[in-house]
Design a protein that fits this description.
single chain, 9 helices, transmembrane helix, mainly alpha, membrane, transmembrane, DUF1700 domain-containing protein
Length: 186
């Protein structure tokens, strides 16, 4: 593959990155070709030594989304980072997607439990409206207690969600480094 073909394939795999970042990356790879040419290498040898342009694009895209998720733990950034890391290799489908789905289910279950406990007094009122003869003070006081417990669960889930998001982004970074060429011991 010659220089033009390599850069064209690399550019196609970088379409999801910001335009300025695409240009910087392409300039860096053009420099690789220029340096290789000055050392007497052919364009085919240089492109072979650089690797697959589509794999390079996937790695750069994963790095971009991981940095973005590391700076802002929003759900959309974490989802993009997960999909970018899954795209690095087939085994990541199980290694990344499995824990992600499990953690997402745990977080979702916690938030749903907290919200259900918080709205429990509304259920007592709805029950009172539907069948007024079944009202008992125990139901009212128990639902108020559940509301307090629900608020505590919601506060706990706020901290748990932040902690899990931070930990999962670290796991994604670890996984991306592992897939890109193993972990280097310093």
């Amino acid at each position: 593959m010659n220089r033009e073909q390599f850069l064209k394939k690399l550019n196609a795999s970088l379409k999801k990155l910001p335009h300025e970042e695409q240009e910087d990356i392409l300039e860096d790879f053009q420099e690789h070709f220029d340096i290789g040419k000055s050392e007497g290498k052919t364009e085919e040898e240089i492109s072979k030594s650089l690797g697959s342009p589509s794999q390079i694009g996937k790695e750069l895209l994963a790095t971009h989304y991981l940095e973005k998720a590391g700076n802002d733990y929003s759900a959309s950034n974490i989802f993009r980072a997960v999909w970018a890391v899954i795209g690095l290799g087939f085994f990541n489908l199980v290694i990344v997607l499995g824990p992600f789905v499990a953690l997402l289910a745990i977080i979702l279950a916690g938030w749903i439990t907290g919200a259900a406990f918080i709205v429990s007094p509304l259920m007592v009122l709805i029950n009172l409206a539907i069948s007024p003869g079944t009202f008992e003070f125990f139901d009212l006081f128990f639902s108020i207690a559940l509301t307090g417990l629900g608020l505590l669960i919601a506060i706990g889930m706020l901290y748990a969600t932040r902690f899990i998001a931070t930990g999962f982004v670290r796991y994604l970074n670890f996984n991306a480094k592992l897939v890109k060429g193993g972990l280097k011991h310093e």
